[in-house]
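Dear Dr. H.,

I hope your travels went smoothly. While you were away I took the liberty of generating a structure for the chain from your last submission, since the lab meeting agenda had it listed for discussion. I wanted you to have the full record in hand beforehand rather than looking at slides cold. The sequence, exactly as received, is reproduced here:
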Amino acid sequence: MSTPQIEKWLCEPLPKDVSQSIARLAAAEDVQHIAVMPDVHLSGDVCVGLAIATSRLIYPAAVGGDIGCGMAAVACDSSASALDDGNVVSRLLAALSSRVPAMRHSRTTMPELPAALVERPLSDSRLAKLVTRDGRVQLATLGRGNHFLEFQADQEDRLWLMLHSGSRAMGQAITAHHVAIAERQSSRRKLPWLVADSSEGQAYLADVQWAIDYAEESRLGMLRAVEEVLRDLLGSGLDWNSLIHANHNHVCREEHFGNLWWVHRKGALPAGDGVAGIIPGSMGTRSYHVTGRGLAESLCSSSHGAGRAMSRGEAAQAISPKQLAREMRGVWFDTSQARQLCDEAPSAYKDVEAVMRAQRELTRIDRVLRPVLSYKGC
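The corresponding predicted structure, in token form, is as follows:
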């Protein structure tokens, strides 16, 4: 078995546990190429911040549970000064909590599932039942952890809306279902695989596409809900012609180095030549709109964000609400949730500017944005 090529774009030395995880992945069957992004950090059997290529096997762990997780950004028809007024901000945060809930919609606020999702069958009847239960009430909800909705200002002080969310419970259920099948098929509990052209592999790939489409519809639903809030509060809407929309957790067939490979991205942004993308910082730091440079060695990928410097547990222990408030100076957020947000403080993440410097050959920066208001679920 040949050793896969491992290419790295790093802003700091790799921790030992991350290096060991990448080495285990490199030793796995059929792994042809690994690209390590500067936001790489430990997460389960496969680190976040990797793109890997295989020729015939699919590794669900190299996509992760939040299939289709991604970013959307769109310009607002107003300047950032519209959020200078604390009273307006208080009303906006309250409206976001109602219209864009973290966990689930109420019967009065939940949107209709698109017919294309309802009519497209999933591979197992138990998954199909979840569509009309969890899938319905969690469509257009934000989720917790590092998922967020943020208002930002660009260099011309125009207001932008950016959000980060995924496929919620549906993605987790799809992953768990197929991981169990992969464990039986490959007789492995660590890094189990599916044969891509088998019936089991094709079923997983079809369900992955369903989850990607669900996550995209969910993000669009949240953007539409926020637009209604903006019209009510500010009398302004969104400039939909400016929309940037991409996901960073998927597997797809791509050609690289003359080979047709299955490229898995787990926390890695597609960065093909001319492809638009979004790379967020943390709650208190800058974010970037970028265009990919199409570097083959990176599997035409880049980082999907700043990347965690501390685990959630470490950050919750090390960072106090007072420190969070200091780090968030100048950015509106719900201070009543400060204790719950300590694990998302800017210092829990890597320096996004160092990340961007490390991947200059992967992406071109088109727009730099500073945070104005951050809304997260707790």
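Two observations you may find useful: The chain has a mean pLDDT of 96. Residues 129 and 135 are 9 Å apart (CA to CA).

With kind regards,
E. W.
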